[in-house]
Amino acid sequence: MLRGSDLYGSIRSRSQAVSQAYAALEREGVRLESEAVAQESERARAYRGLATLHLPELTHETVVQTLVELESRIRQILGEKEAARAEVAAELVERGDELDRLAEQREALEARLTAEGEARDRLHKVVDDELSEDEAYGVLAAKVEQAEERVAQDRRRLEAARRERDEKLPAYESDPLFGYLVRRGYGTPTARGNPLTKALDGWVAGKVDFERTWADYEFLRGLPDRLRAVLDHDEERLTELTARLDEIESEVSDRVGLTAVLERGRALESEREALLDRIDSVAAMHDALRDRRGELEDTRGDFHRRAVDELDAFLQAQPVGDLRRRAAETGDPRDDALVERLVAVGAARERTVDELRRLRARRRELEGHVKRLAALEQDFLRRGWNGPRSRFGATVDLDRLLAGYMGASTDLPGLVSVLRGQHYFVSPPRPSRPRFGRAGGRSRSSFGGGGFRSSGFSSGGGFSSGGGFSTGGGF
């Protein structure tokens, strides 16, 4: 047996670890992008320096101007994209902080719901004990149970009568002789025909035993309506008895404070549902911002690539070997240093670009993991599987399930289906007398996950007529 709160804690820890790893990759990506920009600018400056030192074929003023213009274009493009990216990054941080605050509020709210659930169970026992000593209540409860059984039998009989009617009436109505007599109104004051035809009709009636057949036909056709009237009468009686029983239950519930606990619990449940909706909304905005940032990176790459392609086309026209040879011919050691620096920066830039490419691929992978774990966490909470009465079978292998889920071999509905098959709620304490456990629906097991949506006494309203409140299945 595994506690739902423990499984939720494992999912939460995994989600936090992946989010932290993703944030670290984001910081490293920013550093590498800045480094790549600096290397590109340094390479352009090295070439411009060579031109100003009058290397052969690089002394023309237009060469220097071309390099300056290209570098300026690169800087302008990168500046615009970095400004947009910084704006998105700032909003990402803001939304991330909001998600953290909402998570703290949610945990505090879950704790309050748990406390109210414990109070509810304790007060339910108080109510049960007091009602168990009330002989009038016991007699009335027995009558309600009998009335519930009568209503259940009435419904079964009505359904059987309807089924038999639908199955057998077509055979009567399709019989040509019986149908002929029915259409002519045989045996009624409205029967048509002269003495001869009526005599013939009488002969046909004898052939089909019309009187007995008609009686059977009418019985089949009218039985559902008669049984419906019986059901209506018995349901009215049940409603009357249940109202009297609920009145006693409500009086005791109000007096011991159970009603107030249920009302607070329902209010907290509504607050929790609104909070979970807000978390979903903010998470969706956070995901949209991540997507926008990815678009900015791609867009920046497209614009940047056009400018850099122009620069590379110009620079690659000057082979490094030729630059070294020409630098040696000038006799100026500054040329040689600039060429070597150009080679080193170019190699460093290639390494930076490769590392950045790998980092972005890993970041995209982790971003998918972050979204998947957040979706699982929210679904787990909405189902109330994190509560103190939530249990899973001991065979649940969360690590294996999460590995398949994170690897996209299993989607969220598939994972939830597996978990649901292993999940159950521990029942709350049951009352000492068995009358609340009858099939009519007043069983304490009607907590349905242990939550507050159905609060215990449920026939005809009772304590659950106003709805209960669910603490996430933890009760």
As a whole number of angstroms, the C-alpha radius of gyration is 41 Å
Number of helices: 11
The assigned structural class equals mainly alpha
Order of the strands making up the biggest sheet: 1-2-3
The rough form would be described as elongated
What distance separates the N and C termini?
16 Å
Reported for the largest beta sheet, the result is:
3 strands, antiparallel
What percent of the residues sit in helical stretches (DSSP H or I)?
Answer: over 70%
The unreliable regions are 54-60, 430-475
List the helices and strands in order. EHHHHHHHHHEHHE
What is the count of structural domains? 2
Residue-averaged pLDDT: 78
Strand percentage, roughly? under 5%
Task: Produce the secondary structure layout.
Layout: E1 2-3, H1 4-52, H2 61-132, H3 135-174, H4 176-183, H5 195-208, H6 210-256, H7 258-315, H8 320-330, H9 333-382, E2 390-392, H10 398-406, H11 412-421, E3 423-425
Antiparallel strand pairs: 1-2, 2-3
Overview of this structure, please?
This protein is mainly α and 475 residues long. It folds into 2 domains: 2-132 and 259-462; 135-258. It is built from 11 helices and 3 strands, in the order βαααααααααβααβ. The chain has helices spanning 4-52, 61-132, 135-174, 176-183, 195-208, 210-256, 258-315, 320-330, 333-382, 398-406, 412-421, and strands spanning 2-3, 390-392, 423-425. A 3-stranded antiparallel β-sheet has the order 1-2-3. The longest helix has 72 residues, at 61-132. The protein starts with a strand and ends in a 50-residue tail after the last strand.
